[in-house]
Amino acid sequence: MRVFFAIEFEEELKEYLFNIQKDIRQHCMAGNFTLKENFHLTLRFIGEQSESQTKQLITALKETAANMSGFELKLNQVGKFDKGNRKIIWVGLKKSQELDNLYSQLESALEKQEYRKEDRGFSPHVTLAREVKLDSFEVIANKIAVDNLAIKVKSISLMESKRIGNKLCYVPIAREEF
Questions:
Q1: CATH topology of domain 2-177
Q2: Catalytic residues
Q3: Tell me: the pLDDT tens digits for 110-125?
Q4: Where exactly are the structural domains of the chain?
């Protein structure tokens, strides 16, 4: 199964992000837009794993959550990653020591389960669309304002990415509260 660690969002935040996404869609010629129910913050993508490997990941999830307490994140701005002439459009988060700590705790717990540390740096964002084709990102950046909404973080999840019918779904395998 294809898995990743994530912070899941409340319905109110998903609705808010969906409305931002609708505004962005108006400026795009093409794109693969994230389904509203799939909005989340990825902490660490793992990839294909067996059932026994998934058990190790659940152990790392439990260890990470045991060392954490709840905190808040704040949305920041709309941004992009360039992939050739197409883009990934996202909403960023304000710098957070608590989020950095959560990520470090997760990396340490994964290392104990013999998973290598992530090579690239942690760049927390919520993906709104992939493979986006548009004339000017600056139009979006100047028109779309992101409120300083608070996101209450009180759990982390191990998620499975799978297709159900023709629909990509992110399904929690395990969730640990803190």
A1: Cyclic Phosphodiesterase; Chain: A, (3.90.1140)
A2: 40, 125
A3: 999 999 999 888 999 9
A4: 2-177
- Six-digit token string for 119: 């090579």
Question: What pTM was estimated for this model as a whole?
Answer: 0.94
| Pick from 21, 48, 46, 44: nearest CA to 127 | 21
**Per-residue exposure over 32-54, b if at least 16 CB sit within 10 Å of its own CB, e if not:** ebbeeeebbbbbbebeebeeebb
- Angstrom distance (rounded) from CA 151 to CA 149: 7
- Range 135-160 burial, b when 16+ CB lie within 10 A, else e: eebeebeeebebeeeebebebbbbbb
Cβ contacts of 70 within 8 Å, gap of 6 or more = 152, 153, 154, 178
Side chain identity at residue 48, one-letter code: E
User: How far is the C-alpha of 64 from the C-alpha of 123, rounded, in Å?
Assistant: 19
